[in-house]
TrEMBL record, chain A:
InterPro entries: BP-dep_ABC_trans_perm, MetI-like, MetI-like_sf. It is a multi-pass membrane protein. Gene3D superfamilies: MetI-like. Belongs to the binding-protein-dependent transport system permease family. The keyword Transmembrane helix applies. The chain crosses the membrane at residues 5-25, 64-90, 102-124, 136-162, 183-208, 242-263. It comes from Sphaerimonospora thailandensis. Pfam families: BPD_transp_1 (PF00528). This is Sugar ABC transporter permease. Keywords: Cell membrane, Membrane, Transmembrane, Transmembrane helix, Transport.
From TrEMBL, chain B:
One of its GO terms (cellular component) is plasma membrane. One of its GO terms (biological process) is transmembrane transport. It comes from Sphaerimonospora thailandensis. It is a multi-pass membrane protein. This is ABC transporter permease.
Length: 277, 302
């Protein structure tokens, strides 16, 4: 049949989608002279780690990296827990306002965060006076805000997974004498794990790739900056340091890419639970 | 047990509250409260330096609607979201079909497909802006080598400098970053279709196209609806692509409502808040229209 043609198109599409990442890594490895060349080549014969060295040696890069990791992983874990509990509540109990609550979650998903930076700034400042750990200039503030914004989507996704688990399973566990806690964590939780992987992917990239919250809440504490700050150093009004930008971007992107590829299989089965309704 | 129900009943009634409570509190405080604050400030007179100078009634809205560019911005926002989502869905339907087949190298090509999703949208936009740079842009060099461009550096080598070419490029980049998620969601949808329906279609002698149209697409609809819905919300509110690549320029010719709101923030916070409210209202209307058109089940399945 036309199978081979279809496969060639698939491979070509994969090339196209991967090209910017390839170009980013390539540019990070090119010597400065080649980056500025007017005859760019899709390869380099003299790869150099100069740009990476410049990125890693200057401006607390490792510190920012660890900060980003702390924020993203905290958001992933907390969001999974809170969303799981909420998803159980909206699927396993019928209570008044259930539909209202679900609609509220959906509408909350539609808010453009750029419109909310000013009220959020004041909110975080005020919370900070009561609870210092989540005030301005703290990683806690980033965790709190990312967590809240990741929840609506996470709950919507988890809902499908919890609903897919037959209630008979829980009833059987209950007859065997299991308490609510046991049923929740030993029966339900493992069964919805693929869904948690899929939601984690979303909350992870949102937190990891975020520029806007980092620039809104971390205003003066240099030690609490996250990776975007390290990237912005290389943008200069006169001439951008493309080698540095590309090396920093590479270091920022590769961990996410590895994470994605690692969970890729689970991602498909994970999304499947969310999209069948 | 039945004679003393009160405490247990109350506890049972409050139980879902305990489970959903943390999520509700977080969303209410960090998401809903700032939204209310945004709506409130859209009726306030606020100085350039953020000092509230009292109520402004509907003045901010009146000023916003009087802006010469307001109409264009709103139309452009709708064109932007419809064009990006439609193209994304069409391309993703095709790609999902291709990547659902087994072929040598499928695993690696699927990894490659994930890349734009994993990369930050800001970085992808910076990448494309760099590749479209009139002096050193890779895409312009390729155009020059193919004979489509006379020389680097001129106006012809600056696709982002003119409204007629900037918008298509912005749409292309938005499609580029939206396709991976959409394709994966559709692949997930395809995975839920049992193989025997295809066998049945084959036994009935249905052609490939006929099978796709009458079997695959209808069964794919839930996945398609969810994926498109998420895209509508994300694309409408998307800020980094346009901001990084054109700042809404030249003039306001590439500004959508989100960009316009951000630009207004620099001159009039109250008017900017009014734009945010209009923007928010518009997403809700668009989503409602979308759900109506796609005949999404309005009841929430248990």
């Amino acid at each position: 049949m036309r199978r081979p043609v279809a496969n060639v198109i698939a491979v070509a599409a994969a090339f196209a989608t991967f090209f910017p990442i390839y170009w980013m890594v390539l540019s990070a490895l090119k010597p400065a002279g080649e980056i500025q060349s007017l005859d760019a080549r899709p390869w380099t014969l003299s790869p150099t780690f100069d740009h990476f060295q410049r990125v890693l040696s200057g401006e607390n890069f490792s510190r920012y990296f660890v900060n980003s990791l702390i924020v993203a992983l905290s958001v992933v874990v907390l969001s999974a827990l809170v969303a799981f509990l909420a998803a159980v509540a909206v699927t396993r109990f019928s209570f008044r306002f259930r539909t209202t609550v679900l609609l509220m979650f959906l509408v909350a998903q539609m808010v453009p965060v750029e419109a909310l930076t000013i009220p959020l700034f004041f909110l975080v400042r005020d919370i900070g006076t009561a609870v210092p750990g989540v005030g301005l200039n703290t990683l806690g503030a980033l965790i709190l805000v990312h967590l809240a914004f990741s929840l609506p989507f996470a709950i919507w996704m988890m809902r499908g997974f919890v609903a897919a688990v037959p209630e008979a399973l829980e009833e059987a566990a209950m007859i065997d004498g299991a308490g609510r806690g046991t049923i929740l964590w030993r029966v339900l939780f493992p069964l919805v794990a693929p869904g948690l992987v899929a939601t984690s992917v979303f909350s992870f990239i949102a937190a990891w790739n975020d520029f806007i919250f980092a620039r809104t809440f971390i205003i003066s504490a240099k030690d609490n900056q996250t990776l975007p700050a390290a990237l912005l150093v290389f943008f200069k009004p006169d001439e951008n340091d493309w080698g540095g930008i590309m090396a920093a971007s590479t270091l920022m992107t590769i961990p996410v890419l590895v994470f994605f590829i690692a969970v890729q299989r689970k991602l498909v089965s994970g999304l499947a639970g969310a999209v069948k309704d | 047990m039945q004679q003393k129900p009160t405490f247990k009943q109350v506890a049972r009634r409050l139980e879902p509250l305990a489970w959903i409570g943390p999520a509700m509190v977080l969303i209410a405080v960090v998401v809903v409260w700032p939204v209310i604050e945004m709506i409130r400030s859209s009726f306030l007179k606020i100085s350039r330096f953020g000092v509230v100078q009292g109520s402004n009634g509907a003045g901010n809205y009146a000023k916003l609607f009087d802006e010469a560019d307001f109409g264009g911005v709103m139309i452009r926002s709708v064109v932007w979201v419809v064009a990006v989502v439609a193209l994304t869905v069409l391309i993703s339907l095709g790609l999902a079909q291709l990547f659902n087949q087994r072929f040598p190298g499928r695993r690696v090509t699927r990894w490659a497909l994930i890349a734009p999703w994993a990369a930050s949208v800001v970085m992808t936009s910076i990448m494309f802006k760099w590749m479209l740079d009139p002096e050193v842009g890779l895409i312009n060099m390729v155009r020059r080598d193919l004979g489509l461009l006379d020389e680097l550096g001129g106006a012809a080598a600056d696709p982002l400098g003119a409204a007629s070419t900037a918008m298509p490029w912005l749409i292309a980049v938005a499609v580029f970053v939206s396709v991976p998620f959409t394709t994966y969601a559709l692949l997930a949808g395809l995975a839920t279709i049992p193989a025997d329906v295809y066998e049945a279609a084959k036994m009935d002698g249905a052609s490939t196209w006929r099978t796709y149209w009458s079997v695959t697409l209808p069964l794919l609809r839930p996945a398609l609806t969810v994926a498109a819905l998420i895209n509508v919300m994300n694309v409408f509110n998307n800020f980094p692509i346009i901001w990084v690549m054109t700042h809404g320029q030249p003039g306001y010719s590439t500004a959508t409502s989100t960009i316009f709101m951000y630009i207004l923030k620099g001159s009039d916070i109250g008017e900017s808040a009014a734009m945010s409210v209009v923007n928010f209202g518009m997403v809700i209307v668009l989503v409602a229209i979308f759900l109506k058109v796609s005949k999404w089940k309005t009841e929430v399945p248990r």
